[in-house]
Amino acid sequence: MREPFWIYQRRFVDRKVPLPIAKVYIYFLLVGLDYLHSECRVVHSDLKLGNILVSFENEKVLTNFIKRQQQMQYKVDRESGRTIYRCHNDFGPLDVQGIKNMIPKIADFGVATIFDRPDTQDGMVGEQLGVYPIQPDFYRAPEVILGCGWDFKADIWNFGVLLWNILGNKELFQQVYDADGKYDAKGHLAEMIALLGPPPKALLEKSKAMSKYNWPQPVRNATGKLCNNAQEFFGGPFFNADEFCYNGSIPSRSLDDTAPFLEEKDREGFLSFVREMLNWLPEKRKTARELMDHRFLKLE
Ligand SMILES: *[C@@H]1O[C@H](CO)[C@@H](O)[C@H](O)[C@H]1NC(C)=O
Ligand SMILES: *[C@@H]1O[C@H](CO)[C@@H](O)[C@H](O)[C@H]1NC(C)=O
């Protein structure tokens, strides 16, 4: 693969891939996600721009690179006699002619979970639900923070939030860290409430019921505290009955105003598309296969 998506983005004006191309990429990524979920029964759980790699535009880039590399700086390790070249993550300017060959692919399955066993696994409850904390901070799904148990739909939330990075080169959520740079679950939830309205009762009830159970193994959180369940891990509880305990942290933002990077004619379709992914309830989110048919991805 040539490079991660965040390097690829830099090659475009304002670091943004033009919308028609971005739509094709989103479609390809959904094909990949559907394959992972339906065929492989894998929850990726770490979707971010660094884990989306773009393929080479043509083979010459690599052969030319090797030729250049042979004339490049190197040193010889005294003990082993081995030649050591400078490390690179950038293969230079794009051959624009070949851009249609550049396909984004989902990479890095280091923290992926396979849900293919009929029996209950360690750390999984009921049929097939993960319970340990997952996902990069910005893209963490509400059921993960609230300790409700998660499945494939956590990837759908993650992918929905990532669309702001893919299309607008910006983060949707802006208060996921506190002043000390630590993950701040209450600030993150407050922002979800601002964008989506309060969470449904069913989710809060599940969260409360699950908070009574401990994980098979305790896990240390970012503060270094050894925690027995999600509520401890993320510093909950966050709700008292159905009332959010930190409603002073709810910013005055609305989802409709989060996509200024799109022209008005595209914005409505985009918001309809992301609302199929950013639902509090995992079971209400569309599958990757269903999302592939959304009108936002249709090219005029
Ligand atoms: C870690 O757990 C402690 C105890 O539950 C909690 O107070 C703290 O907020 C947690 N830290 C993070 C970064 O979530
Ligand atoms: C915040 O919570 C308090 C107490 O429950 C309530 O009186 C107040 O109206 C709430 N504010 C908002 C903005 O929801």
Automatic annotation (TrEMBL):
This protein's UniProt keywords: ATP-binding, Kinase, Nucleotide-binding, Serine/threonine-protein kinase, Transferase
Protein name stated in the entry: Protein kinase domain-containing protein
Residues in Protein kinase domain copies: 1-297
Pfam families: Pkinase
Native organism: Paecilomyces lecythidis
Domain of life, per lineage: Eukaryota
Lineage, highest ranks first: Eukaryota, Fungi, Dikarya, Ascomycota, Pezizomycotina
